[in-house]
Amino acid sequence: MQLTTGPSAASRATAASGASTDEVTRSGRGPAVRTANARLRLSREERGWSQERLATEIRRFSVIHEGREAGVTGNMICKWEKGDKKPSLRYQRLLRALFGRSSAELGFVDDDALPAASAVMRAESVRGVNPAGPAGSRPAAHEVAGAAMVLHPAADVIDTHGIPVERRDVLRLLAAASGVAVVPMGAASPQPWERLSAALRRRVSVTPELVEELSQRTAGLYGLEERVPARVLMQRVTEHLGRISQVLESAGRSPVRRALTSTAGETAALAGWLSFDMNDLAATTAYYRVAIEAARDADDHGLWACVLGYESYQTASQGRHDQACALLGEAQRRAASGSTAMTRAWLSAREAEEQAARGEGRAALAALDRAQDAFERGEPDGGRVWTHFFDRGRLDGLKVTTYTRLRRPAAAYAAATDALRAAGPGATKKRSLLLSDIAEVHVQRREIEAACHFAAESLSIVAQTDFSLGLARVRRTREHLRPWQHTHAVRDLDDQLHALL
User: Fold this and answer.
1) What's the pTM value of the predicted model, to 2 decimals?
2) Boundary residue ending a domain (145, 163, 198)
3) Domains identified in the chain, total number
4) 442 and 474 together in one domain
């Protein structure tokens, strides 16, 4: 008997990363094809907002900055994201101002439909005029007090992707947004002393509401990590971390500083994980160190435990399973005094994986028991941002890895059955890990075609999400298939690997 998964992941929708590969190609012949707006959805989820919450924010924004009501509902947002309808020009303007993003970035126009004005913008950028600010960043207008939007003196405003925008509406929306200064600029950028003078005058009012908004944004970014390639998400994370740093500088010793520092540490930990996924080990180490510094400053032992858990993946990828176990042991000691049950469950399950890699069967099984016990006592919504991914399916997936490494294929097969039943159908990174582990189960059972099937399913998700850890798992499975390398199934898997590499 072999485990099955349904349609191939390659035949399902491509990754919801907001990139153009998400979108169905439109044809000039025949009826129009409905195209889901993955970019709008991505911008919403980055904030950690539901569709109803986005509708509420648009209505609030419209009243404050336009002086009139907006009849948008959560159902309308759903239709925009599914591609059933397209926002009107008014709602497109509101969404651009609310998110601080261009029409292209919000999926209102296709990349290949951009006007020739984009070439003009690139030429201006080469001469030193960069309307988007450093590294293309563009802070949301209502978030960073004292920010400036650079406008060209031409009749129309051109956004960073070359999209003409009505000058009057942009001025009215952005000039009113939380103290944002709209500065007409000529050919020259502000001089360094002018930027310093503006920075010295800038004041950020650090309120509990602002800290909560930044925390929600961090949670939203953690949620996106499951399916968005690290290289795509990293820019958003670093921009967000820059905004938190600016607010933190203004916080002084205010009562909200501790919560803000924890949010900064959580965001830095995510940046470290993304750097690890991109194989930038120097940046990984730097982000983890500053995240621990934030955890120490905020007296946040749960955050400290999270960072140590993330570090264990880095050492394990280098074959240092003893050191990974040491990191996970220290993480669990810190989690015992200041963390949630879900964090403890995740760390114990991770230790089980690494103990199994060391051949320590008794320690691995004991760690699995602790993980199961903590998971049963944990609240589904009671974890921290880094445990939102840790559901029943992920716990079962870690069991599969542990039993496979202990060469207990019967137990691994049973855990894999449970894991597939609990896992969702989406093309997420944790699903790619699960599928590659199930492939390992079939290798041990000498079911080669099934092993290659699951490895190929995993690889298709890896290709969509650019997930280096998932790729490493598939390549390890391929090494274990060496005795059958001349079979058609293994050759087909090799073709997929070569196309990806």
Assistant:
1) 0.69
2) 198
3) 4
4) yes
